[in-house]
Amino acid sequence: MSQSYRVAGMTCQGCVSAVTRAIQRRLPDAKVAVDLLKGIVAVEATGLADDMVKSAVTDAGFTYGGVAV
């Protein structure tokens, strides 16, 4: 399954790495792509659940903005 999410507060590659690591801790097989300028995080993983991504993003210190349309 694949889904994109809005994430606020990312300003640099370190932020990208932090969000990616946080998501991959919960979903080890996840492929994560971040568009830093748009504040969009695309996640592709088996067993993907919005709640998992939300908790990963907030635990990493960023603001989860919901599913990106």
Question: Characteristics of this structure?
Answer:
globular, four-stranded antiparallel sheet, 69 residues, alpha+beta, 4 strands
Chart the SSEs and their pairings.
Layout: E1 2-8, H1 13-26, E2 31-35, E3 40-44, H2 50-59, E4 63-67
Antiparallel strand pairs: 1-3, 1-4, 2-3
Helix pairs in contact: 1-2
* Residue windows where pLDDT falls under 50 for at least 5 positions: none
Shape: globular
| Widest sheet: strand ordering | 2-3-1-4
How does CATH name the architecture?
2-Layer Sandwich
Binned, the helix content reads 25-40%
Q: Kindly, what is the distance between the CA atoms of the first and last residues, rounded to a whole number of angstroms?
A: 15 Å
Number of helices: 2
Radius of gyration: 10 Å
CATH topology (fold) name: Alpha-Beta Plaits
Class from helix and strand fractions: alpha+beta
- State the order of secondary-structure elements, H for helix, E for strand: EHEEHE
User: CATH class, please?
Assistant: Alpha Beta
Instruction: Please count the beta strands (DSSP E, at least 2 residues each).
Output: 4
What proportion strand? 25-35%
Instruction: Give the number of domains.
Output: 1
The description of the largest β-sheet is: 4 strands, antiparallel
Mean pLDDT over the residues: 97
How would you describe this protein?
It is built from 2 helices and 4 strands. With 69 residues, it is α+β, with helices and mostly antiparallel strands. The protein has one domain: Alpha-Beta Plaits, CATH 3.30.70. α1 crosses α2 (50-59).
